[in-house]
């Protein structure tokens, strides 16, 4: 490990070392940054004042621990571990002491931690006796050649490392919400904790710890201990921790997807997280916190609330029980629709260009290349891409018959994250038999881009 000599670090932190451009690094850059979350379940508007205050106090205490460590030149890994330990010891969060319980009324805890310098990582799942799962996850990372230990093996490993162990009732003794109550079952995932940090040495780290979803089946493992799903860190991109319905985070490799968007497609942390929260995950699934290698902090949720907080070397220190507009700017949320509209408008414009160049194959590219494509016109349904292109080619055999097409009066109606209805008018100008009418297109966002999966075209008039 290369470490910056302490004296250099002190000078840098005091803003006395000049960057090559001649300005002090401390004045310009975020030297360290930290974000925390305490879960995205439940609706804070429904919580009583006591519960809200307990949450805020817990977040502030944890964030202060992280801030002080990072401001003193401590490592992001130490900050992540210390913050999560503080939240694990607080029964108001669903991790460590306050963990929710399985259908059988027992706490089974999961945690993971990752070092952005090397992608070293450690995790434990389904443990029942470990007071601070995050610290044992770190020991899996540093003391074994493995990444993930589960169940009794993980508990035995913790015992061999002499970490503090507790009796199972430790996790039940101080619940603010009694296990198995109606309140708990309507809040299936609340209070998981996570932390992401960038330290003054430029290193990122991420960690997540949870009791999982309440009333889970014994043995169920969520995303929190799965590196790439609930946790990820890489110094080249970002550190991320998620909270929400873990199965969705695993299915979508959420934490890795964010780093991949940044690494392969050069997306910003903000746009990568927005993409996941608005387009990949269904509404009401959860939230994410991330810090980029440049120190930008992004926190978003698509649930009614998310306990979270952020601090950095520029003096920021704030905590929230929920973020306005889920943490996205109003502009961004409007941009969702117009981004998709823009993509579809472009596709339709390309179709008319191809048509007018006599290129039916290019025109047909906008359709879903599937047997399930449906095209209906004149009371008949043509099924499949092959049959549809054949129909076009039979009808429009030469350039004169194809004429010049124009599409207009497009109206967009979003049908879902990945589906859009488009109504419009078409006109075919040609010397013989000019025709036109209306169309209804159903577009679906597919891996290859937006594609027409259903087309209903009617001939309304002869212009
Ligand atoms: N993601 C956690 C899990 O599924 C729960 C949560 O974040 O609230 O285990």
Radius of gyration: 27 Å
Largest sheet: 8 strands, mixed
Proper CATH architecture of the largest domain: 4-Layer Sandwich
Q: Output the number of helix runs.
A: 14
Structurally, the number of domains stands at: 2
Counting helices, strands and paired strands, the structural category is alpha+beta
Note down, in words, how this protein is organized.
By secondary structure, this protein is α+β, with helices and mostly antiparallel strands. It starts with 5 loop residues before the first helix and ends with a strand. 33% of the residues lie in helices and 27% in strands. It has two domains: 7-25 and 335-457, Nuclear Transport Factor 2, Chain: A; 32-313, Glutamine Phosphoribosylpyrophosphate, subunit 1, domain 1 (4-Layer Sandwich). Strand 3, helix 5 and strand 4 (148-150) form a beta-alpha-beta unit. The chain has an eight-stranded mixed beta sheet with strand order 4-3-2-6-5-1-11-12. Strands 14-13-18-17-16-15 form a six-stranded mixed beta sheet. It has a four-stranded antiparallel beta sheet with strand order 7-8-9-10. The chain has helices at 6-13, 25-28, 49-71, 76-88, 133-143, 151-160, 182-186, 246-251, 254-265, 269-280, 330-356, 360-364, 385-395, 399-402; strands at residues 33-37, 109-115, 120-127, 148-150, 193-198, 204-210, 231-233, 238-244, 286-292, 297-301, 308-312, 317-320, 374-377, 380-383, 404-416, 419-429, 435-446, 449-461. The structure holds aspartic acid (ASP). Aspartic acid (ASP) is lined by residues 39, 41, 189, 192, 210, 212-213, 222-224, 230, 243-246.
